[in-house]
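Submission checklist for the structure archive. All mandatory fields must be present; incomplete records are returned to the submitter.

[x] Identifier: R-spondin-3
[x] Organism: Columbina picui
[x] Residue count: 243
[x] Sequence attached
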Amino acid sequence: VHPNVSQGCQGGCATCSDYNGCLSCKPRLFFVLERIGMKQIGVCLSSCPSGYYGTRYPDINKCAKCKADCDTCFTRNFCTKCKSGFYLYSGKCLEKCPDGLEANNHTMECTSIMHCEASEWSPWSPCTKKGKTCGFKRGNEVRVREIVQHPSARGNPCPATSESRKCIVQRKRCQKEGKGKKNREEKRKKSNKDESKETRQESKGRAARRQNREQRENNDKTQPKKRKAPNKEQNLAPIDTAH
């Protein structure tokens, strides 16, 4: 053992030196060299930092560098995340995606081109005009379909999701309200009308009777009173029976 090697190290080191830092690590920790200026210092970590991948050996666990275009990797030849400007495809970092694939700028990966897919058309709707299905002869009917797969950046765009065409129907009148409700409304109006008519007739009758009564009273006031004829029996002189 080198004279500078110490057995009482800190930070997960099994052995260390004042000049080079960790020389070996405790079990299950990874040994990695960190550059500080022109000097490399050994450190022991529970997992390898970005840009490194871990390898385990019987005597030591080491962190080795990924390729220059790889940000994180599983092994030196299998990258899991690329650096800026590169797209990941099958563990490799590429500047341009292969034919039949497209670059996804969100995930920075080469992905398959997805074309738009639509469902089958629905049946044609009833013939309508201005939202109504009656009161006209010529109208329009429509049918719709749904998008089941949206396209990727280079995929074929989606087709129209609705269609409209002219239609002809047998013209029929529109019912404003339900038949029962309409009949009740008509009965109510008729009842109100009859009641109003009876009320008017009663009012006319009372007015006519009042007018006749007032006319009779006026006539009685203007005509002179008739004298009563004398009783004939009272005016007869008594018969003289003395002769």
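[x] Structure attached
Curator remark: Residues 70-112 form a domain with the Hormone Receptor, Insulin-like Growth Factor Receptor 1; Chain A domain 2 fold (CATH 2.10.220.10). Confidence is low (pLDDT under 50) at residues 232-237.
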